[in-house]
Amino acid sequence: MHELDIVILAAGKGTRMRSQTPKVLHTLAGKPMVQHVLDTAVALRPDRTHVVIGHGAAQLREALSENTVQFAVQAEQKGTGHAVAQALEHLGSGKVLILYGDVPLLQRESLVELLAQVDDQHMGLLTVTLENPTGYGRIVRNGAGDAVAIVEQKDADNEQLAINECNTGIMAMTSAQLKRWLPQLSSENAQGEYYLTDVIAMAAEEGIKVCTAQPATAVEVEGVNNRAQMARLERVYQQQLAHQLMEQGVALADPLRIDVRGKLTCGHDVFIDIGCVFEGNVELGEGVRIGPYCVIKNSTIGAESVIETHSVIDGTVAAGLNQIGPFARLRPGTRLAVKAKVGNFVETKNADVGEGSKINHLSYVGDARLGRDVNVGAGTITCNYDGANKHRTDIGDNAFIGSNTALVAPVTVGKGSTIGAGSTIAKDVTDYALAVTRCRQLEKTDWERPAKRK
C-alpha cells in the first residue's frame, strides 16, 4: 500500500475578507474552514498531513494544536507552487494530495476517486465544469482529449477563456513526480508567482497522463474569498445537514431556518421549530419538541421533553418528560430529573432538580440540589456567592418555597418544610417546619401622600 502525504495550503491572508483573522480560521458551522479540510483529510488515513502556514501562523498553530499535523512556513506568499515547495523535504515516497484550507465542503469520495488514478505514469487533477468560469484557470486538452495544461484567467487568450472546464487546484501525484517538477517552476507570468498548475504541462511533456475527476457537485470545490461566499457556503452546509436530519425522521418546521454548529443526534419523532441553533454535541431523545428560536449547546434532552420558545440551554442533562421555558436559561451543570420543570425567565446553574420538582418562573437557582416534588415560587433566588466563594443550597423532598424568597447559602431546607413568601432564610430549616422571616406590617390610617412643591 502506498504512503500518502496530504499538503493543505493555508498561508494566505484573505484580504477580501477584511478581517484580522486568517481566512482559513473563519468558521463554517462553528468550525474553522481549515478544520473541515483537515477532517476530510483524516478520513483518508494519510501517513502525514502538512499544513502550509504564513499569515497568522501563530494563530493557526494554536487553533490546530489538537490535530496531528506538520507545519511548513511560507514566509512570503509567492504562489501555490512556492507554498507546496515549503513542505517538499518532509514528504515520503508515496502519493501526495494537495488541498486548500479555504475549500471546506470537499467530500472524501471525490478524493478517493482522484487518488486511485495516481501511479508512476499517471497523476490526478480534480476539475469542475461551470456555466460561468470567470476567475478560474481553464483546462486545456489536446486533440486526443488529454489534459495538457492549465491556463490562468489573466494569462488566457479568447479561445481559452471560452473553455468552461475549470481547475479546482486540487491535484494528486507521486512524491517523485512532484520533486522533479517543483524546482522547474517559473514566475514569468502576469502575477509574477510560481503556479502549481504549471506541473500539468510538465507532466504532459514527460508523457505522464493527467487523469481528471469531477466532484459530485460543484459546490464541493467552491472556495471562500469574501464574506458573501462564506455566507453562501454556510447556508449550503446547513441545508445539507437539514436534509440529513429529515431523512433520519426529524421534523423541521423550515429546513432553511436551522443552524447546527457541531453534532446533533436525534431520536424518532423529534420536532424542531424555526430559528433554532445547536452548538457542540447535542442529543435530543425521542419525541422531543423544540420551540422557535432556542439555542442548545452541549446538552442532552431526554425523551418527550418540551423546550418552549427562546430558551437557552448549555451544558445541561434533562432526563426526560421535562418542560423548559419559555425564555429559560439553563447554564452548565444543570441536571433535571424526570418530569422536572423549569419555567419562564428562570435561570439555573450547577443545579440538580429532582423528579417532579418545579421552578416555574422568575427565579435563580444556582449551586443547589432540589429533592423530589419541590415547588419553588416566583422570584426565589439562591444567594450562592459571597463575593469570593460559591456555596450550596440543599432543599429536601416536598419542600415548598414561597415567592420572593432569598435562600442565603450555605443553607439546608428540610424535607416537607414550607418557607413563607418574602422570607430571607440564612439558617437551616428542619424537616416539616414553617419558616417565615418578615418585618411586622405597619399601617397608618388617614395617610396623606407627600405632594410636589409648587
Provide an overview of this structure.
With 454 residues, this protein is of the alpha/beta class. It has an 11-stranded parallel beta sheet, with helices on one face. Strand 2 and strand 3 form a beta hairpin.
Biggest sheet, strands in spatial order?
A: 12-14-16-19-22-25-27-29-32-35-37
Q: Give the low-confidence spans.
A: none
Q: What composes the largest sheet?
A: 11 strands, parallel
Structural class: alpha/beta
The radius of gyration computed from the alpha-carbon positions, rounded to a whole number of angstroms, is 31 Å
Number of strands: 37
Our measurement of the CA-to-CA distance between the termini, rounded to an integer number of angstroms, reads 98 Å
User: What proportion of the residues form beta strands (DSSP E)?
Assistant: 25-35%
Query: What number is the mean pLDDT?
Result: 95
Number of helical runs? 8
Q: What percentage of residues falls in helices of 4 or more residues? A: 10-25%
Query: How would you sum up the global shape?
Result: elongated
Brief overview:
By secondary structure, the protein is of the alpha/beta class. It is built from 8 helices and 37 strands. A hairpin with a 5-residue loop joins β8 and β9.
